[in-house]
Specification:
- Helices cover 17% and strands 25% of the residues.
- Helix 2 crosses helix 3, helix 2 crosses helix 4 and helix 5 crosses helix 6.
- It folds into four domains: 129 residues, Sandwich (Jelly Rolls); 127 residues, Jelly Rolls, CATH 2.60.120.830; 224 residues, no CATH class; 126 residues, endopeptidase domain like (from Nostoc punctiforme) (endopeptidase fold (from Nostoc punctiforme)), CATH 3.90.1720.
- It starts with 34 loop residues before the first strand and ends with a helix.
- The strands form five sheets. The chain has a six-stranded antiparallel beta sheet, with no helix packed on it. It has a six-stranded antiparallel beta sheet with strand order 11-20-13-18-17-16, with no helix packed on it.
- It is globular.
- With 647 residues, the chain is an alpha+beta fold.
Length: 647
């Protein structure tokens, strides 16, 4: 929603007494002599969007709304709620131009059929000076973007910045789009802006065109808490991973007095609404949450099995294959102390199990450890009855599918498969911090900011996760997320400090690809979508001069249209994520060609495998999208899941 701050022109909506102009109408720029301005307003189908406030004391307002979608203007009296313009129950409610006198001013509306140039092109004219605030809204019969052009003859209201103030409003965020939230004027003390959304939304902050806060090009661009100085201002940002309560929960602090106007924007990795809360004034900032770790010993919880191969339980946390000085011992002992792991029992030594720390962890083992460590009591209630049963893992697979963060739905056949470090990182972020990431890199950065994964090391997201690493991740995440675990359930000293950032998770030595050459449901959906375009020789696939093969592939995956084929393929090649044998390319995989492929102009070529030895892509100006045999000079293929998650 486009609105005002007390002319801290944050394009939020502020009361007219606190003028930080956050998007929407700005009647302060004319210095009381009138002026003109324009802004964009996004509208969702079937919903009402608040455009902004027309404050009292403004003379001769003319507003023109232009949109290709069918939109209807609404106008309300802010104080009384009177519907001045609204179909079907406003004072003005017809399809053609009509006028009324309201509170001493003449108001003319084009009518819901528009000004004659389209149903999304409407206007309001107010003859006279507004006596009290009016609220303009828009209803969308169809979704779309509207341009709001407005002029006024004179007057201003609430243009002086008060020493303190604040407000909250809703902002519509579009998928893969950047929206302007507002302009922050100079002269504001200790500004705090908090964005809260159940969607993955990133804050951006600009000084004109210079990105102060922006992923990936800003001065501040990381996932964790970070600070910088800019033009005499100290600026703090939560980072794109949020404040720890969700990826759509971010904040910006500007400490001290703003020395120049700044522009706040938001980018939506997902579409939705965000709540924008802002306030300013000396020492305005909220206190930092410093909840201490609480460890609660259990009393009536039976020790749990990891392997499920035997009904025996651990008597003490002693594993004969873990010696004194190994880095992971304290993490394994912490899990054992809470009864989460008991190790493997060989037949003759029930009191001396092995843990097998260097063994790759299976999906079933990993889900069980992470589920118990993140939600101990809830997992116990759901899964305790399966302990010792042959299908003990099914309960944990059910929980994992409810989280819906792993690349595909897990089932019984996947239980014994080895889990990759990347999948384990994504699952840990969701299970412990309720943060859902769609790519591994962001999950790694987030967990690094929490001390779960060691910073400045190659995370090797495609390698197997070892059982030693699994124990470390689980205990560190439990510590960072303030999870309660029943340490002391099994005889073992309760870990005093189970997390110390100095002890990192070492690199795995066994690279493991995450690609499965069998066709996936997701890949088949991509192929079905691509097949519908075969024969299409129109824009955006061709424009009479160029073919856009990279654009075609990215848009089949619902990604933005930017990026050359060679750049995209090189991104995956540098990470060893391209498979060389194109004869095994599954449906929906992305086929890469060299930079100097015939007809590519030095930009390379890229297409989508149909799964039968053919590919679908943009190859011809005259034919546009075609289906042909995969060419012999193809360099390799990228699985559909990898392309979706890693670019």
């Amino acid at each position: 929603m486009n609105t005002h701050l007390p002319k801290i022109t944050l394009v939020f909506t502020l009361s007219c007494t606190s003028q930080i102009a956050l998007a929407g109408f700005d009647f302060c720029s004319g210095n009381g002599q009138g002026g003109n301005n324009s802004f964009k307003q996004q509208v969702i189908q079937g919903q009402i969007a608040e455009v902004g406030e027309l404050p009292s004391g403004i003379d001769g307002i003319n507003i023109q709304l232009r949109a290709q979608a069918d939109l209807d203007i609404q106008l309300y009296d802010k104080q009384t709620g009177t519907k001045i313009i609204k179909w079907p129950d406003g004072i003005l409610r017809g399809g053609s131009q009509e006028s009324t006198y309201y509170d001493g001013i003449a108001i003319t509306w084009s009518g819901y059929n528009g000004d004659g140039t389209g149903t999304g092109n409407e206007f309001i004219k107010i003859n006279g000076k507004t006596n009290h605030p009016l609220i303009m809204k828009v209803f969308g019969y169809a979704a779309g973007s509207a341009t709001v052009d407005y002029t006024w003859n004179g007057g201003s209201s609430g243009c002086e910045v008060s020493a303190t103030g604040g407000d909250v409003f809703q902002q519509n965020i579009l998928h893969r789009k950047t929206v302007t939230v507002g302009t922050i004027p100079s002269g504001i003390d200790d500004l705090y802006i908090k964005l809260t959304s159940d969607r993955d939304v990133d804050i951006q902050l600009f000084d004109q065109s210079y990105p102060i806060v922006q992923y990936p090009n800003g001065k501040l661009r990381g996932g964790g808490l970070q600070k910088t100085s800019h033009k005499g201002m100290d600026i703090e940002w939560s980072g794109y991973n949020g404040d720890g309560t969700g990826t759509g929960h971010e904040y910006i602090k500007i400490i001290g007095t703003t020395t120049r106007p700044l522009i706040m924007k938001a980018f939506g990795y997902q579409a939705g609404y965000a709540s924008i809360e802002y306030s300013w004034g000396k020492s305005n900032f909220p206190p930092v949450n410093t909840i201490p770790l609480q460890l609660t010993p259990g009393s009536d919880t039976r020790p749990l099995q990891l392997s499920g191969a035997t009904n025996k339980t651990a008597q003490v946390c002693t594993f004969k294959d873990i010696v004194k000085d190994q880095w992971y011992k304290r993490y394994v002992n912490a899990l054992c102390s809470a009864g989460i792991v008991v190790g493997y029992y060989e037949s003759s030594t029930p009191k001396s199990p092995t843990y097998r720390p260097g063994q790759a962890a299976t999906i079933a083992e990993s889900l069980k450890v992470l589920n118990y460590a993140s939600h101990y009591e809830q997992t116990q209630q759901r899964c305790q009855s399966t302990v010792g049963q042959g299908n003990w893992y099914q309960c944990h697979i059910t929980i994992a599918n409810e989280y819906n963060v792993l690349p595909s739905k897990q089932n019984s056949s996947a239980a014994s498969m080895q889990i990759t470090r990347g999948d384990a990182f994504v699952y840990t972020a969701k299970a412990f911090f309720n943060v859902h990431f769609y790519n591994y890199d962001k999950a790694v950065t987030f967990l690094q900011s929490k001390g779960v994964v060691t910073a400045n090391q190659d995370p090797k997201i495609n390698n197997h996760l070892t059982r030693a690493e699994l124990a470390a991740i689980a205990i560190r995440a439990a510590y960072a997320a303030n999870k309660k675990l029943p340490y002391g359930l099994v005889p073992q000293p309760r870990p005093d400090k189970p997390l110390e950032n100095s002890a990192g998770i070492p690199k795995s030595s066994t690279p493991t690809p995450i690609d499965n050459p069998k066709a996936s449901g997701f890949g088949n959906k991509i192929v079905a979508k691509a097949k519908k375009q075969v024969g299409n020789n129109k824009y955006p696939w061709v424009d009479g001069k160029y073919t856009y093969c990279a654009r075609f592939v990215r848009m089949m995956f619902d990604k933005g249209a930017k990026g050359h084929a060679y750049t995209m393929c090189n991104h995956f090649q540098a990470r060893s994520l391209i498979k060389s044998n194109t004869n095994t390319a599954p449906a929906g995989s992305v086929i890469c060609y060299p930079k100097n492929s015939p007809g590519s102009g030095g930009y390379g070529h890229i297409a989508i495998a149909a799964g039968d030895g053919t590919e679908i892509g943009v190859t011809s100006l005259s034919k546009g999208v075609t289906k042909r045999t995969i060419q012999s000079n193809a360099t390799g293929w990228i699985s559909p899941e990898t392309f979706r998650d890693r670019y």
